[in-house]
Amino acid sequence: MSGREAFVTLATTNSYCMGATVVARSLRRHGTTRSIVVMVTPNVSEQSRLALQSVFDEVITVDVMDSGDRLNLSLLGRPELGITFTKIHCWTLTQYSKCVFLDADTLVLCNVDELFHRDELSAAPDPGWPDCFNSGVFVFRPSLHTHHRLLEHARQHGSFDGGDQGLLNSFFSGWPVEDISKHLPFIYNLSASSLYSYLPAFQQFGHDAKIVHFLGSEKPWSSSSRREGGHSHMEQFVSLWWREYRSNTEASAA
Ligand code: UDP
Ligand code: MN
User: Alpha-carbon distance 8 to 139, whole Å?
Assistant: First the structure.
């Protein structure tokens, strides 16, 4: 089975399933040759699961915590890390030799299959602290050994931000200084916040964006994002997101 490659995303709620649908649909629109996989938790509704099945190659149900595992059991005292561990589960997808993880709140704007030329752990800088990578888009190699080491690291050190990004950055701590080829260009993980912090750069380079990341509490599917008055550049991406979402809904209803 080695040699297979996949894009992987995660949805633990029905609303994140909307996002996941757009991730898959936008990857297909731009002709990816790789598999597209979503991890879901058991609470996700049958309806959402069926919708995902129509657009993903594989829908994998993952338990938030595997109660049979001693290491996981010792982590149960940290409920805030639940989503984090669900995301870390992507390292167990060993039917694939290499994967690209995409947050469910990303939108792919062109073919990005060249990401598979990169190695673990490749990611783009976080706009808030560029010596950390943002964990919304990253290249990784599934490995049960790495998965176990990540859980062990979480058990010993927790996560400095309470989420997967803190854990992954302290685990892959060499990222900021060791190997520039593991630094993805920012256009692979362009977040809305960069519009506010460096608008001229966005105006100069924004048209090269390859993946948009709707980072933060405001998601395209949350009702307030649909109101007017936001930043016009971001509004374009939000309406593109809705177009992709509706195209999928129509396709799966047909
Ligand atoms: N996620 C999820 N359910 C949640 C929260 C997060 O499935 O309740 C997944 C989803 O794939 C999401 C990712 O975890 O994209 C990271 O969370 P989010 O994108 O909300 O964080 P941000 O990028 O805004 O920091
Ligand atoms: Mn995100």
Answer: 10
210 lines ligand 1 (CB under 6 A): no
Of residues 235 and 180, the one with the higher pLDDT is 180
ipTM for the predicted complex: 0.99
- Work out the average pLDDT over 33-37: 98
pLDDT of 59-69, one tens digit each? 999 987 665 66
Q: Which amino acid is at 213?
A: H
Count of CB atoms situated within 10 Å of the CB of 176 = 15
Q: Which of 39, 83, 213 to mutate to test the pocket of ligand 1 (most atoms within 8 A of CB)?
A: 83
10 lines ligand 1 (CB under 6 A): yes
State mean pLDDT over 92-100: 98
Distances (CA, A) of 30 to 2, 108, 116, 214: 25, 8, 15, 19
Q: Convert the pLDDT of each residue in 122-156 to its tens digit.
A: 999 999 999 999 999 999 999 999 999 999 998 89
How is the chain split among helix, strand and coil, in percent rounded to 5? 45, 15, 35
- The closest of 29, 33, 39, 38 to 3, measured between CA atoms, is 33
* Ligand 1 center to 24 CA (angstroms): 16
Instruction: Give the whole-angstrom CA distance, residue 136 versus residue 122.
Output: 11
What is the 165 CA–ligand 2 centroid distance (Å)?
10
Say if CB 103 and CB 189 are below 8 A apart.
no
Domains of the chain listed by start with CATH number: 5-185 (3.90.550.10)
